[in-house]
Amino acid sequence: xSLKNGKPNPLNFFEMRSVxxxxxxxxxxxxxxxxxxxxxxxxxxxxxxxxxxxxxxxxIGLDSSNNIIYGIKIGFENEKEISYFIIAxxxxx
Length: 93
Description:
Layout: H1 10-13, E1 27-31, H2 36-49, E2 54-62, E3 68-76, H3 79-88
Antiparallel strand pairs: 1-3, 2-3
């Protein structure tokens, strides 16, 4: 269960919840703006509100005029969690 429900999560206890690399079987969402404070706030929101394994990190991409843009890549192992994240996270505008 998530922290907001007050029940411990075994993945948190064994420090296996946040992965350091983008697993190929995860479902991803890219936010096309990078700010270190935003990255920390999103990470804290995921830790508090969701249950499964996830990845969050920086990414580089191109916009329509071929300019480099920096972003945040967020991936979830469970497809239901990425849907809930996109709908409920207050840091996504």
